[in-house]
Amino acid sequence: MKTNFILICMVALIAPFGSWAQLTDCYDAANWTINTAGTSGSVTISETSIDMVGDGDFDGTGLDFIDCANTNGTVSACLTIPVSGDITFDWASGNFLTNPLIDRFGYCLNGVATQLNSLDGGPFGTNDGTETISVTAGDELCFVYASLFADASAPATINNFVLTACPPPPPLSDCYDAANWTINTTGTSGSVTISETSIDMVGDGDFAGTGLDSIDCANTTGTVSACLIMPASGEVTFDWSAGNFLTNPLIDRFGYCLNGVATQLNSLDGGPFGTNDGTETITVNAGDELCFVYASLFADASAPASISNFILPACPLTSLVDCYEPANWSSNTSGTSGSVTISETSIDMVGDGDFDGTGLDFIDCANTNGTVSACLTIPVSGDFTFDWAAGNFLTNPLIDRFGYCLNGVATQLNSLDGGPFGTNDGTETISVSAGDELCFVYASLFADASAPATINNFALTPCPGPVDCSVFDTAPVDLTKSFAPVPFPNGNVDRVQVKWYKASPQVRYSDEDAAACDIKAWAKRNLDPTTGNPIGPVISNPDTLLLEDVKKSNPDGSPRELFKWPLKFRADGANNTKRVDPNIRYEWQVRCACEHGSGQESPWSVVKVFNTPNFDPSTGIYEEPSIVDGTDNSDAKIFPQINDLKIFPNPSNGSDIYLQLGSEVDSQLTVTIVDMTGKIVHSELLTSSKDTAIRFSLSQQLSAGLYVVEIQDAISAQRAQIMIK
Fold it and tell me: Which domain holds residue 308?
């Protein structure tokens, strides 16, 4: 299970992640200031657009330009910019009857006006476009609609926003807010101050200390502490500093208590003055009690201690918002008189009361007759906690059954146990995985009552944050291919392995990139089966072989790195719709998308080529030609060769390897070194020219043994062995 974290560490030095496309969070409508004073205009701000209606009361600005300081005849919407970056938006001002000399639309940035509409650009001027503004946190940005005469109420719209992502909240906010901590300074002269970024403690200095040689989590005399009941499970990381070089860790002890178990952080070890600062990570569970403790044996000093630079488990969601919002739930009341109402704070269900119940003595997840339900496809793995109340003391759990179905498996929550009227309420925690189907179910045996049920007080695993798909802004690069046998090195040559990368030199799409790729290839030329050279005209109107959304997954279903895919040779008895034919020069290209194919898609790559060998189409296997009748046919290789390749020294000591090309190959080469298990131990891109010795600078020395060096350019390749001694 992946845990979501809030990362707060030197925020000012870290660029915001991703981008916003809606006016939510720090761009929410509530954060804008609207001005329509002295006008008949209006401003409406939704999550997707700002809609403005200009002044039409015939009392305009009287000005021939936008004056950022003027409000008469002006309609505006202003925001104090929350984070530095770019703001991009589409805008449309008025219509073809609008005169930009009279009705001016634009923006003011820190009081400096920019008019967007103009008389330029066609018979009616320019009344729409796309604009990008570079802003700094703290800037004031105002969209302004100013009318010279205020003689019309032409509309203006700003939408299709691309906004720099909002900064993360400070660490000690939300469920970690100062109000949720318990501070103890009883019987001390010390203090605790909790801000949004740090906890600052001053030790006891009243000379009446703990009298103890250790931190005692149960002792309060001479002890200053700050305690929190952990709201979420995960890791708590923080920097700490306790006292200074004059502080004696034998006297003034700083550390923490987790569920009553003490850990002292400062110590006499670590230098002439001991260790008085560091970084610590603690693994916690929701419900644990964590206390930072500053205890003084003699309480003879008021040395400060500070805890800062927190990395904390993300706070659980407490309402049905974001990926849990009501719109994502489906409800069923078919064939019943019941109802389901889903708000941000609760799910309220009324059971069936039409006397046509389930007729079953249990909750049947597949049954809908007499059943009221509310279902959600779980968006993220974690815990799903809630309070529930079903019916009342008159409700009989034998007749009216309340519970939930998880992937079709029922759990009844109300029961006859627990008191004279049974158990009709409680708190439940369910462990769920992304993609699970969770249904709250209220099923009635006889449907003879419409008793209500409520689910509320949620504690939910936070929704996934914005996905960074910026690597897919550009096309894959460094396209190449390989004809290595499978398994390597003694298997069959039955495929061409096409390869591509997200960046040069040969940087693979990683697990985190979650790439899925489309590959297309089409025949360009026929090849001579003996020489491998092109013959005949260029193939016109070829069919395109298309592989869509190819991707790899780890055993747990999570995305796996992707940089290559096999195009297998056609063979009798196989499905050959996505296989390649023998003796063909193919052109091919690739594009990739994030979120395993469901997200942003890259442009198509440049077009590259590969040649298929003279393989046997009945078996789909290529075999090297052998000597027949005294004739050496070994030159009839998979593809044309790089001529006169020499590798030296061979054997080599493994630190430096050189190759020399006797013929001119003015192109980019891919050089790969593979060990006898098939593992790639070195790969790089090189530019070669005739009679030039090319040196490999290996990142690490190879161990002794036999290796294969494979050299490829756009249309040719060769393998040679090298011995490392």
Answer: 174-313
